[in-house]
Amino acid sequence: MSTSDEQPSFEQPLFEQLRDAIRAESPVALATVVEGEFTGAKLIVQPAAQSSGTLGNADLDRVVARDARGELAAGRSGIRHYGLHGEAREGAVSVFIESFAPPPRMLIFGAVDFTAALARVAKVLGYRVTVCDARAVFATKTRFPMADEVVVEWPNRLLDEVGADLGERDAICILTHDAKFDVPAVVSSLATDVGYIGVMGSRRTHDDRTRRLIDAGVDEAGLARLRSPIGLDIGARTPEETAVSITAEIIARHTGRDAKSLTITDGPIHG
Amino acid sequence: MRELLDDLDRWRSAGTAVAMARVVDLEGSGPRLVGAAMAVTQDGEVSGSVSGGCVEGAVVVEALEVLATGDRRMVSFGYSDDEAFEVGLTCGGTIHLFIEPLDW
Q1: How many pairs of residues across A and B have Cβ atoms under 8 Å apart?
Q2: If DSSP states are collapsed to H, E and C, what string results for A196-230?
Q3: What is the C-alpha separation between A131 and A142, in angstroms, rounded?
Q4: Interface of chain B against chain A, CB under 8 Å?
Q5: How high is the pLDDT of residue A3?
Q6: Cβ-based contacts of A268 with chain B (< 8 Å)
Q7: How far apart are CA A212 and CA A181, in angstroms?
Q8: DSSP structural state of residue A103
Q9: Do residue A19 and residue B9 have CB atoms under 8 angstroms apart?
């Protein structure tokens, strides 16, 4: 791990370095002194590169770079307080550490009529969207121009490649509702740490699929991780309404809310 | 800031002076997250938002002053804030912003 007291890079203004990292979807944190001697001083921190800029002195830079890497890994932003040289439990300097984590991913399995609407809504919410279907005739960029990538592959094979990178913020939506595709897709999804696994299908499809999943060795804990049938009960009918029902369920799962109307609840509104 | 990058880039290459306001801390209920950002040009053009529209007008005034003086500062708005501003978040929270020129 390198720090700013090695060889800071002066080639490019800090804003441009930050901008380029954000655009490249490469994790980056911006630390700014918001109160203290060098208000406005900045340090750009990346997980595996040397830092750029300075907050005033190398000691403070080193401590803040360490903390910023921790915040970045957790996807958190906030103010931290330090002594002039980075001492803990002092308050001479307040530093705002802002994390720019890469966008969360949504993998949509099944190039069906609901897929385009879901991909569109997911893009609005900031997801990097991958549409995956083993049938080359359906999985085309022409049908899903809003997706970041369209992959012709079996879902379990795609997950062999990218599954290890998925985490709490990411989502998998299995829209195939065909047992030959969705059983292996669910089994592979459960092997990842992805935060949301939704599986489309009617109540009957769901019951039938549950039996097949048990036959395929999925246990109680695995079944409990699935959102099946997918989505919130808002009476969605069209692909667009269904996309809202699914993405609303993903949001509610992250915030831990049970998605009642605000009319009949009280307490703070913002999750 | 992610959603402001195109505007910021355009303004920077045109040589337009820009101030950026970023939400650095929130107490209580707030409609946007820490990191929400808004940019204001010398001509009063605005991009982004820092609340649900409760304090944006006051932020523009502050941002123009930051551009005029070059003086970076923390600014707070809140329900309990009875000094300085008659504006606040209707949701009852307090929002702390850092406003500075985009000169870096």
Answers
A1: 54
A2: EEEECCCHHHHHHHHHHHHHCCCCHHHHHHEECCC
A3: 12
A4: 1-2, 5, 8-9, 12, 22, 24-25, 28-31, 33-35, 72-74, 91, 98, 100, 102, 104
A5: 47
A6: 28-29, 91
A7: 12
A8: P
A9: yes
User: Confidence band (pLDDT; 50, 70, 90) for A2?
Assistant: very low
- pLDDT of A6 over the 60 cut: no
Q: B70-79: long-range contacts at Cβ-Cβ below 8 A with a sequence spacing of 24 or more?
A: B70/B101, B70/B103, B72/A39, B72/A40, B72/B98, B72/B99, B72/B100, B72/B101, B73/A39, B73/B98, B73/B99, B73/B100, B74/A34, B74/A35, B74/B24, B74/B98, B74/B99, B75/B21, B75/B99, B77/B51, B78/B27, B79/B28
Mutate to test the interface with B, among A10, A17, A23, A34 (most CBs of B within 10 A): A34
For residues B81 and A18, which has the higher predicted lDDT (pLDDT)?
A18
Provide the residue type at B63 as one letter.
Answer: A
Flag whether pLDDT at A126 surpasses 50: yes
A66: its two tokens = 């360490």
Set of chain A residues whose Cβ sits within 8 Å of the Cβ of B7 = none
Contacts of A152 (CB under 8 A, 6+ apart): A132, A133, A134, A135, A136, A139
In this prediction the ipTM stands at 0.89
Minimal CA separation from B86 to chain A, in Å = 23
Tell me the whole-structure pTM to 2 decimals.
0.76
SS3 of A14, please?
A: helix
- Percent of chain A topping pLDDT 90: 77
Question: In degrees, to the nearest 5, what angle opens at C-alpha A91 toward C-alphas A69 and A51?
Answer: 25
pLDDT of residue A5: 47
pLDDT of residue A122: 97
Mutating which of A35, A81, A96, A99 best tests the B interface, going by the most B Cβ atoms within 10 A? A96
Residue B28 has pLDDT above 90, yes or no: no
Place of tokens 């803040």: A64
Q: pLDDT band at A100, cuts 50/70/90? A: very high
Q: What is the pLDDT of residue A200?
A: 94
